[in-house]
Amino acid sequence: MRKMIYSSLLLSFLLILPACDTLQGIANTVLTEPSITEIGQGLKDALSKGAVKGANALAVQDGYFKSAYKILLPSEAQMVSSRLKVIPGFEQLENNLLEKINRGAETAAKDAAPIFLGAIKQMSIQDATNILLGADNAATAYLQKTTSQQLYTSFKPTIVNALDKVGANELWRKAADAYNKIPLVTKVNNDFSDYVTNEALKGLFAKIAEEEKNIRRNPGARTSDLLKKVFAKQDGNRK
Fold this sequence. Notes:
Layout (H helix, E strand, L loop, with lengths): L1 H31 L3 H23 L16 H10 L8 H16 L3 H10 L3 H8 L5 H29 L1 H13 L12 H25 L7 H14 L1
């Protein structure tokens, strides 16, 4: 009889044990799985850090000019420079213009971070979840969609002022006007602030995409417990 009781107790224990393991697994999942609120906050934190870091990296001396995001001259400016380099005063036109337009973009980049932060603040929970489980540039694509027009509107006058300040506009106008006086040439526009604005924004979003990819792929770039928890979910979905 005693053996039967022991056998029954042992059988009951063995039946209960898997259930306990299951409950423990559920508990661990609940504790480690980020909530919807945490996903939203974590994504906003990551985006804010990446956007500010990216903008600030370009808003310094040589941020554009001596980086992978250097703004090159438009084809018509290269043509004008090539044609005028034999004329006194225009020998270094291409080099001077290159430096000046990049200096203008560096000045304008200082206005980018507040615009990005405003867009991030308005992000919905659904946007955040889609971004977390999206491609390496999903957050950057979201910012492009939501801030491009506002950035262009903000950047354009800043670019114009910056190009005026460093003498780029004056230098280009003189060169373009001199070129346009050459017989039988196709006239060129002596205002290229629109081109510089668009190229500056292109470099800005490329830099932010780089920062986003770093946070997604490099656990060491996740500088808070919340970021580690939220992006662990992304890591799990990549497997």
